Amino acid sequence: MSDALRLLRIDLRSQLQKLADGRGVWQADLLQLLDGRLGNIASLWSIQTGVNLGTAREVITEHLGELIDRLDPRESREELSVDQKRLRYRYGIKVSFNILPKYPELHTMLLEERRAWLKEHEVRILRTAVDRSRRDLSDAIDKMVEILVEQQRVIDRNVAVEVDPNRLSIDASQSSLSVKVASEAPDEPAAPEPLDNSDSQPKFWRKRRVLAPTVLGVALVLTAAGLKIFNAPDSDGNADAPQVAVEKPNCELGFCVTQNWPTLRGCDPATSVAMVPGKLAFNSVYAKKTPTSDFRVAVANGDGGGSWKLGHLYMLMASTDSTPVTIQDIKQNIATEHLPPPAWVYVPSGDCGSDYSRVFRFDLDNNTFVDRGLVGSPEAGEERPPPSNPLGPSFTVTDREPALVEVDVVSCKENYSWTLDITFTRNSKQETRTIGPYRSMGKAVNTELHEMDPYTGELASEVKRFTSTPSDKC
Questions:
Q1: Model confidence at 235: pLDDT above 80
Q2: Which has the minimum average pLDDT: 138-142, 208-212, 279-283, 450-454?
Q3: Is the per-residue pLDDT at 434 higher than 70?
Q4: Percentage helix, strand, coil, to 5, in the chain?
Q5: Phi-psi label, residue 139: left if phi above 0, alpha if psi -120 to 50, beta otherwise
Q6: Contact 169, 241 (CB under 8 A)
Q7: Could you give the CA distance from residue 33 to residue 109 in angstroms, rounded to a whole number?
Q8: Residue 323 DSSP code
């Protein structure tokens, strides 16, 4: 199995669990989750940005129902027939994801409340103890992940991309990113899209049933090949758009680390970014902003960009197989302490509340790296809390038990370039993985300040210039 599919398996497991948490498919922020934390599910099921909430929920319910109806229960010694066990098991999983149409009262219930409801179900054969319900959901998610990964493997095989950088281009001018792969036989007409004349299904729904190379499918093939994909130059021939890269996960030596920088997962309207002089101008960056992509990520990961005052690095760590990997330590390294003051800073406005994460705090001004443990409050019914063990012998990961950690990077007084070194052990052999470099900035001199108006939600028309002082707070 390719590294990309291994990482897809890890991501899907956590995303399916997230889909069952809280109110299941009736979570109020379902669309935002599909644009963020449930991104792989949205790609696999062709849930496009801009679809309305009702249609998205309908598509997810249909896909989940099809998956669940393929599952068989765990072995048990109960005096029930095979069909009775299968009926109860599948019914319970549908309750966990909250996709039963017959009981609208479940739509406002949290996961644990639905489990309590299932325990006292009016139909005796469907009653399921709370502990059994938890184990059944975990079992079902594992089986669903394997089905979805195999489906993606088939898509990858059908894509059959001959990876050649000369045949790749990116169209970032539309509302969503699209990957174009030049055909081996350009003169051969493309096969027409199969028609679905069912008037009972919306056009969006019909489109998802066509087996075609999705952006995710192409991206997985490309990431497995270790390529980076960049924006093509704009219509004026200026390649000044932020670079959007799909990179191969770092899975050397049997240890995978996938990073996300600098925004918070899920909802983050507050993280600010900055750009050093001589690189992209703010107007050229902001002009290419779309509702479906966060230009701050492209800025902070691109040439000359970085976080401003506070950034968030997420690291998803896993083994490539069932062999445990022990995370012995994480050490900080400041590569450059005096980067030039940024040419501009972008400061959005808003707040989404706190996340529930295993957090480390990297204070660049004092060069300290502190393990803060679990921060925030778990959502009701959350099944898999972040890892709580201290770094060392008890902090282990496998392909089925990954660990997601958050590093809050603070830079109040200077402009820095930095890396992290992860010391890990696999099969009794100790190795080090370097993450980065990244930039974090906090010192401004005659710097442009671009702010969002908190009342209108639009970019403020007045561009200010400012110089920070050592007393400025983050």
A1: no
A2: 208-212
A3: yes
A4: 30, 25, 45
A5: alpha
A6: no
A7: 19
A8: S
Assign 306 a pLDDT band (cuts: 50, 70, 90).
very high
- Going from N- to C-terminal start, the domains of the chain cover 3-156, 252-466
Q: What pLDDT does residue 232 have?
A: 29
Look at residues 218, 313, 212, 203 and name the one whose alpha carbon lies nearest to residue 264: 313
pLDDT of residue 460: 85
Inter-CA distances, 316 with 43, 142, 263, 368, 404, Å: 20, 18, 15, 22, 4
Phi, psi of 286 (to 5 degrees): -70, -30
Query: What six digits make up the tokens of 304?
Result: 């000359």
Over residues 272-286, the pLDDT tens digits come to 999 999 999 999 988
Backbone angles phi, psi at 263, to 5 degrees: -95, 155
Residue pair 175/103 in contact (Cβ under 8 Å)? The answer is: no
Angle at 252 between CA 249 and CA 257, to 5 degrees: 45
Rounded Cα distance between 463 and 452, Å, is 11
Residue 350: what pLDDT?
61
The SS3 assignment for 372 reads strand
pLDDT for 97 equals 96
The tokens describing 321, both together, are 């197989």
pLDDT of residue 201: 30
Question: What is the token pair recorded at 398?
Answer: 């496998």
Q: Are strands 447-451 and 344-347 parallel, antiparallel or unpaired?
A: parallel
User: CB burial class (10 A; 0-12, 13-18, 19+) of residue 271?
Assistant: buried
